[in-house]
């Protein structure tokens, strides 16, 4: 019997854990012991999501002792991993979570770090994430020796924009450690944290409100829209739309300032080495916070001291003033946009090194506009989350920009978050709390319609591949834990072979009908995902036989989309797997 | 209690009474004790042991007062943290006379940021005396001289009226990191070699 409910924010750059005890309403943050220097352990609220594989000579065995003993693996997780990785190349894995939804790389493929030195074993994104989660599990089990995490009710947050395959991968990472975690969307968790911290939330929302949640993390921006409706006299909440996966966040702002200062230094004839970039980024981050602070200074000197003993010899100093920061951060990332602006795609290089698919257009306001347009939303409330909003001018400016996008008679109010850094983990815990103790539930069904591609029947035309139609196999809004939905269509498939279907997702907020066919001309408007795969194990049939199958979809209790194929006239069924696109695809 | 009072039967009481008559008559001391018993006094062993709850106010001076050394481990650890976060040792080891105020100022900002990070991350702070700087305060007689230091013309028994020059600092909680090996603390910062 579970004693605790635990919310884990498995973030791209930081992890946090909150928990509550059954029968109590108080939610507490778990401090996570981690190495902060060789041989030094500190318990901190956040665990940086970095995994470092040290060289055999780099650390003594005694340097790696954690409160729960020496790690059996050869890797280090947390603050020390981040610090060591900043100084030595090719040993650190970061942003593992973002690799889970990479279109060309399987989450099981051992490719990280991409610039690995020769003497370490590369790891897959899933392995890296497992190392991080293992650390959190160990920290929990150390603090609650009589209530191991495997026996508690655990919620893990994922980006709202995570594709079905990335969710399955996250779930598998948890299951490898014996944890049956429920998955929850991060912006929704941030909204739950607001509910937990706002006892009179009902007086702040009214029927017809649409709440836009803008969650800007270190490396990603995640958007969601929550509608307030009425059900039997009570306020009812429903998450009606989520944004796409935007690899753009607070770190980009610090990098923008860093390169600006590096340019200024280059004009003075000073070129920076790579280690100085790291120091400069930290100094710029500090300068940004100070300059954007209300009543902060007009100018801030940015210094990267030399690595030698002298703080002054070879120190590199430049200054940043308020105007530059406003220009680069505020105007650069939050420019004024007009209603017909499009997200700028920008040309891509023909040959790119294998890496994450970072966003080309840094204008967060344009991405939000794009989201609002796709979901046909007119938000009346906005909730900000993420450390970026600790700078009040950023929150104020974004609010002002959003207001300017809405018709003149619309009012957009800001909901006041209680904290910006830990809200997601807290909200995830509160979600499980309300689930156990009753209380309101924000309905969140499937965030998009999902389609498979089917070759449409047509006479052969030389030089032209048969066009592909898209069949809706899971509609938007499908609720988790609901009944299995069955498609009316039937397919004939050959036993003993692997069949691949192209897989698509809609990018608007209207629910489609299960089994609806979108003709080939409409397919272009869909977003193509990595294909799905169905292997019909021969079983009693002879290989080469044809079987007739129908498909079904269901979102299970853990929040994962399950697709199955069932044989007509028997009770045999097969699981359909999410895969990744071939690299040349 | 080893001894108890148990009632005596009638016959031993009857004969014993004669003996007691002469014993009482013959000894003034015995008679006085009997009178106390008669008045309701109890023997020591009949009384419930009393727990002494009074604390001893003054710790007696040990015959030879000795001085102690504070543990150097904590000091070394603090130096490590200050060097790591603020380059503190680099700063104090370097003569700064040759540099301009602007250069020193720029470095000081970084050192300040690092030092305050260490001070706030590992220690919780409060005032030693609750009051605002410059306020009139009254220090009672029998104050703790570790907590409050009087300056100026100190005379009489107190209370002492004065101006609060500095409310002092007190650490309410220490959260220094745990370490695996105290012997390694002497190396405040390792040498860095880029390969």
TrEMBL record, chain A:
Q: Which InterPro entries match?
A: ATPase_NBD, Heat_shock_70_CS, Hsp_70_fam
| GO-annotated molecular function | ATP binding; ATP-dependent protein folding chaperone
Q: Which SUPFAM superfamilies match?
A: Actin-like ATPase domain (SSF53067)
CDD domains given in the database record: ASKHA_NBD_HSP70
Q: What keywords tag this UniProt record?
A: ATP-binding, Nucleotide-binding
The record's section on PROSITE patterns has: HSP70_1, HSP70_2
**A Pfam family this protein belongs to?**
HSP70
UniProt lists the family membership as follows: Belongs to the heat shock protein 70 family.
**Which protein is depicted?**
Hsp70 family protein
Q: What is the lineage of its organism?
A: Bacteria, Pseudomonadati, Pseudomonadota, Gammaproteobacteria, Oceanospirillales
From TrEMBL, chain B:
Start and end of every DUF2760 domain? 73-194
- The source's superkingdom equals Bacteria
Q: Which InterPro entries match?
A: DUF2760
Which Pfam families does UniProt cross-reference here? DUF2760
Record-given protein name: DUF2760 domain-containing protein
Query: To which species is this protein native?
Result: Maribrevibacterium harenarium
Q: What is the lineage of its organism?
A: Bacteria, Pseudomonadati, Pseudomonadota, Gammaproteobacteria, Oceanospirillales
